[in-house]
Amino acid sequence: MQHRDPLAGIPDPDAGLSEEERAIQDRKLLWKLDLKLIPWLSFLYLISFLDRTNIGNAKIDGLQEDLRLTNGQYNATLSIFFVSYSVFEPLTNILLKRLRPSVFIPIIMTWWGICMATMGLVHNYEGLMTARWWLGVAEAGLFPGVNYYLSCWYRRGEFGIRAAIFFSAAALAGSFGGLLAAAIAQMDGIGGKPGWAWIFILEGLATVLIGIISYWMVHDFPDEARFLTPDDRARVIRRLKADQQSSAEHEAFKMEYFWASVKDWKTWAFAVIYMGCDGSLYAFSLFLPSIISQLGYASTTANLLSVPPYAGAAVMTVFIGWLADRTRQRGLCNIFVALLGIAGFAMLLGSSTPGVQYAGTFLGALGIYPCIANTISWASNNVEGVYKRGVTLGFVIGWGNLNGVVASNIYRGQDKPRYRLGHGVVLAYLALFLLGGSIGTRVLLARENKMRARGDRDAWVEGKSENEVEMLGDRRPDFLYTL
């Protein structure tokens, strides 16, 4: 098969420079992108994760008793968030592309901040359910949106560490959330409101403010971002083209991109892997304060003891992101990390000793959090096409989050203090979906790469124009999958 020059027709602002000088320009450009994009987006995800999981902190501070919720009703308020969150996720990346990130992200943040604040004003089960439903709708656009957005800026071998830094904000949110909840809960009684209500009100108002500021802090896609000079814009698009990506370009949405994603086996393979780590993540983050409080600690101490496992998970997430970028072995990284999580939940399930159980929460955090960012990077690396990648990430993340419904209902009040059902279900998720799915997907991707290398797929491009070949995306025979 003939290989065409992907950079043909794109102006080269560095023409005439030596390879060394080009490398210096490239490093400068990467630093510029990193400083403009990553810190603020990571901060937004920290806020997002804080706002969806602080109900776990509010629960051990008296939420359930004050609203007179049964165990089933409390779990339903957790579940309803994931239903709306998952249903709307596949649509959000299309809206992100149509509305522009600098408009779409501030709108959804301000909206979910208002929903968050109203959770502190509710007086009954129905009010809390309504607020949680709308919180899910509003938050649905951020995580898949930002991962898709970053994949439109960076090459495949650079994306993993950035996705990991962005996602490590979730682990930091778990860490920071415990400290913040312990502090805000001390406002108990002020304005006639209990401490748990102030957790929702103050964090919600902060989110609204941050959402408004985001209009000036979130940048658009490479072809429209105002902070890029014309030369830098050409450099960004050239480096993406050289990496066989077309995601920086402007293109009208067509339903065929949606169906291309639905019919691709990789969409569903990555969805299975992602449900393994995401279902486990939500069970862990929503119930860690409760698990620790059952080891015999008061609510404030339990909130504080939930900090160290998250801090360790944040460091591990960034390390795995770096390692997977360097080795291009995202599947093997998933497999290794999943084994840590399986060991952690086996300890929680098998031992009644508080020290062993607390150590199990550490290994659980280390075995879950890194796989979230790594799986998203792995899926993103292996799907090409402007809209197809956005739709695929929406499906993968949406299906993973739908498993938050399961996660919300497996740590039941009647199972205290050992929570055998909860730990057992998470263990099954990690072993069957995360570990098993990662092994199976890696085997299938390696098989497809061998077929392409042998020329078995060359017939797919026969008789097609250069533009038609480009639009095949990851179905181009010269496109090799990341294992």
UniProtKB/TrEMBL annotation:
Keywords: Membrane, Transmembrane, Transmembrane helix, Transport
Superkingdom per UniProt: Eukaryota
Transmembrane residue ranges: 103-125, 131-151, 163-184, 196-218, 268-292, 304-324, 331-350, 356-379, 391-411, 423-445
InterPro entries: MFS (IPR011701), MFS_dom (IPR020846), MFS_trans_sf (IPR036259)
Gene Ontology CC annotations of this record: membrane
Transmembrane helix recorded as keyword: yes
Domain spans labelled Major facilitator superfamily (MFS) profile: 37-483
Membrane topology: Multi-pass membrane protein
Localization per record: Membrane
Listed GO MF terms: transmembrane transporter activity
PANTHER family attached to this UniProt entry: PERMEASE-RELATED (PTHR43791), TRANSPORTER, PUTATIVE (AFU_ORTHOLOGUE AFUA_1G01812)-RELATED (PTHR43791:SF19)
The protein's name in its UniProt record: Major facilitator superfamily domain-containing protein
